[in-house]
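Input.
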Amino acid sequence: MSLEPPFPPAELEQRLAAVRRRMAAADLDGMLVSVPENIYYLTGLDHWGFFACHALVVPLDGPMILVARAMEHVTVENQVKNAVFLGFPDDADPAQSIANAARRLGLGEARLGLEQRSLFLTPGIADRTRALIGREWHDCSGLVDAVRIIKSPLEQEYTRRAAAAADAGTQAAIAAVRDGASDYEVAAECHRAMILAGSEYPGFGPFIRPTRRLGEEHTTWCGDRFRTGDAVFLEVGAAYRKYQAPMGRLVYVGHASAAAEAAAELALRGMEAIRAAIRPGATADDAYAAWREVAHGAGLTSYERHHCGYVIGIGFPPSWTGGSMVTSLRPGSDLELRPGMAFHLHSWFTDTGRGDYFVSNTALLTEFGCEILTRQTPETLQVR
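Output.
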């Protein structure tokens, strides 16, 4: 029995129609999509073959063509029902195959869009493609992302399922923390629980590191052993049907100081302020300002973070942010917050000289307000 496709045909049709409306508004005849998250969003293609050139040629009207290595034909045949497959042998130039696909669709001399912020279309292939086809090329980075930023009811359910698995992984990781434990043990228990709870491979992590590496934003387990007095940073992301749900906690080994307890209380107040500020019609800046007010109210008037969270959704490695772009809840951002958006929210107080604590959650904005989805793992200070 084969697995059901992640998206019903009607939902894929609605997504493509919305993307085409944006293409028409940008006066594009066609578009070259190479971001894996966007290809998945439009076709349901779910595999790791995106490390090599994949391009979805999307005309303003008519069928789409998916260009990839010929060896991917079985995967594409099984998973993709709304695009024609054009495979190229490994000794061929992918740019030529992309150009052939565009010509087949009547786009040889068209106004075309290219996702210039894509991590997976190399500059060489992009340059050769532009030289072979197209009357005009325009940067369409973010065009598909602007459609997928609002999650359908199905996508929201996938995010909830991912959040439940993230909770399970985080709780298992916390339980494995102790004096003398290796970060390998913590990572193993986290993965086991998360996967058994229904997670597929996540876009990142989990990130696991002790006090001495607390400030290393994107490093993880490497053979460290935890000792009494350490603060162990845990940031765990689970995924269901590629929808990401990250969360984080800071766990103390053996004991925690009064300063740590105060920092934890402050971080929790910050998280609640962010949650309350995220409502339909508010802006990303409003959310950050609410967190900053908590910091300033505690006397940390010079303490700032680059953001207090960001938009999440579909994510393929190497990121759970959904590509090379991070759509942040940052100071000065006028991004309007709308129902159907999902977020990874952070309340982070470290290196303040007044104790360290950090908490983060996956949240969903509904018509009724901001709902925290990773709610099974306590946010309060934990000592193991």
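The radius of gyration is 22 Å.
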